[in-house]
Prior knowledge:
Layout: H1 3-56, H2 80-83, E1 93-95, E2 102-104, H3 120-134, H4 143-166, H5 172-188, H6 196-207, H7 218-237, H8 242-257, H9 259-262
Antiparallel strand pairs: 1-2
Helix pairs in contact: 1-4, 4-5, 7-8
InterPro entries: Pex16
Organism: Charadrius vociferus
Family: Belongs to the peroxin-16 family.
Amino acid sequence: QSLPQQKLRTWLSVLECVEVFAEMGTARVWGEMGRWTIIVLIQLAKAILRLLLLLWYKAGIQTSPPIVPLNREQHQPLHPSDMEGNSSGKDQTYVGKRSSRVVRSLQSTPSLQSRHWGSPQQREESQSRRAEEMNQPPTPLGLQETIAESIYITRPLLHLLSLGVWGQRSWKPWLLSAILDISSLSLLSDLKDLNKRERAEMRRRTILLLYYLLRSPFYDRYSEGRILLLLRLLADYVPGVGFVTRPLMDYLPAWQKIYFYNWG
C-alpha cells in the first residue's frame, strides 16, 4: 500500500476508536445539539475517507476496522536460538526413534513469554501463511460491486439525513437503512474468490443485520419487552446465567441510546 493509503486507513481506524467517546463527551458538554453535530461530522469524515479508498485507491471491500488489530501472541518473532543454524530447524528438534514424534530440544527452548507449543517448522509455516493472507491484494470490483460498496459507505449519511427529515420516531429511516444494507449485500453476493479478510467482512455485515432488532423504532415497539423477558427468564431459571443477563438488562437501555453503538 502507498503511504497516503496507509494514512487514510490509520485516520479511519482512529475515528472508529474515538467515535463513541466523542459522542458521549460532546453530549455531556454541549447537549443534544452538539451530540448530533459531532455524529454528522464523524460520519461525513468516515464516508469521505472510505470513498477515497474505494474510488481513488481501488481498495475493494473495506473491513471494519480498516487496520486489523495486531495479535501479539501470533506475531511474536522467533526466538534467536530458532533463527540460528539452517532454516529447516533440524538442530532445534529431536525425532523419536520409535514414535517419530518431533519435540523441541532443551537447548532451543525459548523464554516463557515467547514460548509456543509447536515445532519450529510449524511456527514458520503458520507465520508465512499469516503473512501471505495479510498481503493478499483486494479483489477487483466491477461497476455493480463498486456501486454496492458505495451504497454501504453512504448509508450512514442517508440515514442521518432521513432522521433529520422524518424524525427519530418514524419508521422511514429504519426502513431506508435496512433496504440499503440488504441491497448492498445482495449486489456483492455475486463476487467470487474473495480473500480471507473480505469473506470475514461479508460475514460480519450479514450478522450485523440482526442489529435491526435493537434499533429504534423496532426495538421500542417490538423487541424491548421480548428481549428483557427472555433475559429475565434466563436469569431466574438457569443457574449462573444471571451474572451475565442481569447486568445486560441494566446496560441495554444505555447502550441503545448511543448512536455509534447502534448505527455506527
